[in-house]
Amino acid sequence: MKINQIDVHRLRMPLKSPFETSFGRLTYKDFLVVSVHSEDLIGYGESASLPFPIYNEETTGTVSYMLKEFLIPKLFSIDQIDHPEEVSKAFEPIRRNNMAKATLEGAVWDLYSKRKGISLAKALGGYKREIEVGVSIGIEPTVEEVLEKVERFIYEGYKKIKVKIKPGFDIEPIRAIRERFGQTVNLMADANSAYTLDHMHVLKELDQYNLLMIEQPLAHDDIIDHSLVQEQLNTPICLDESIHSVEDARKAIELGSCKIINIKTGRVGGLMEAKRIHDFCKSKNIPVWCGGMLEAGIGRAHNIALTSLDNFMIPGDTSASDRYWDLDIVVPAVILSSPGKLEVPDYPGIGYEINEEAFNRYVVERETFTNEKVVF
Ligand SMILES: O=C(O)CCC(=O)C1=CC=C[C@@H](O)[C@@H]1C(=O)O
Ligand SMILES: [Mg+2]
């Protein structure tokens, strides 16, 4: 494939309701969509970045800069692309900036699978026709408001309920959910690095609530201290922010720092690395699931395709479009095919078309790059 044009669009989409975690409160998503053009085909990728450097060191501004100054020129320097793996290899000399890399590499994966006439899921080696999905609930002002959201999502059939916790807002909401909805709810907690080893007593108290997992209790860049937590808890520890590569996954598993890994394509630099982590975890009998970054429909479509791989054994955070958006940028919108399930599209590429009317409503900036420009 010869890529002759790349467009970078910046979009701003208001969330239906604020989403709060231990590190901040979001009321809108400011993100990028890149389109890569080759002859008559277009591939799409979506940046997972948040508007502020609170989940990792990247923001939509840094992703935009890295794309325009380094990654797009680097991609244009590849004369013919036979497989997206060549893109992640070409990006290797550029340090970190994983969400920027993943945005562009994901678009090339969409283009590649369209060129092959197969779904992105099949191109990745996934064969599930339907995936089970869960939903993530942010920190709400009161426990009662958490319970209201849990009730709504149980009613919609979501197969896993993730609630956010932080010191001072942990035991009470978890206990209230168990008291109200019993033990049958697949319940997990995401701490987003809000705890330290000084909170071990709180984490051990959570052990009694039969949680599926406790996600990322300690620092975003820690692996070793998580092993001290895991050895004292029966509840599986799941790592999210700490895992940026298959090497990180290897170290975490060897140290016993986790029993589950949350894979996010943006966090690990792209679908190729996400697949490497999936395959490595499968070889170590460590189940994985697909996390979310409040994506719009293009990002959701990529996540659905990734989740079709067989070691995605635990429902992910890829909820339907209406979890966050009144109007999504894809048609059809991502909707549950049955309670708590999403169909894996069997059309070439990501399997969703762009909703031009919505897309143009949310676009705030657009820039086109052709490969006549000086390469990196
Ligand atoms: O996309 C979704 O629905 C999941 C959202 C979610 O839980 C998160 C998004 C971004 C950062 C975190 O707050 C959190 C996570 O860590 O998984
Ligand atoms: Mg998380």
UniProtKB/TrEMBL annotation:
SUPFAM superfamilies to which the protein is assigned, alphabetical: Enolase C-terminal domain-like (SSF51604), Enolase N-terminal domain-like (SSF54826)
The protein's annotated pathway: Quinol/quinone metabolism; menaquinone biosynthesis; Quinol/quinone metabolism; 1,4-dihydroxy-2-naphthoate biosynthesis; 1,4-dihydroxy-2-naphthoate from chorismate: step 4/7
Every Mandelate racemase/muconate lactonizing enzyme C-terminal domain range: 143-236
Superkingdom: Bacteria
CDD domains: NAAAR (cd03317)
Binding site for Mg(2+): 190, 215, 240
Catalytic reactions on record: (1R,6R)-6-hydroxy-2-succinyl-cyclohexa-2,4-diene-1-carboxylate = 2-succinylbenzoate + H2O
SMART domains, per database record: MR_MLE
Stored Gene3D superfamilies: Enolase-like C-terminal domain (3.20.20.120), Enolase-like, N-terminal domain (3.30.390.10)
Active site per UniProt: 164, 264
Enzyme class, UniProt record, top EC level: lyase
GO MF, one example: O-succinylbenzoate synthase activity
InterPro entries listed in its UniProt record: Enolase-like_C_sf, Enolase-like_N, Enolase_C-like, Mandelate_racemase_C, Mandelate_racemase_N_dom, MenC, OSBS/NAAAR
Cofactor: a divalent metal cation
Enzyme Commission no: 4.2.1.113
Summary of the function given for this chain in its UniProt record: Converts 2-succinyl-6-hydroxy-2,4-cyclohexadiene-1-carboxylate (SHCHC) to 2-succinylbenzoate (OSB).
Family per record: Belongs to the mandelate racemase/muconate lactonizing enzyme family. MenC type 2 subfamily.
Listed PANTHER family: O-SUCCINYLBENZOATE SYNTHASE, O-SUCCINYLBENZOATE SYNTHASE-RELATED
Name used for this protein in its record: o-succinylbenzoate synthase
Organism: Fictibacillus barbaricus
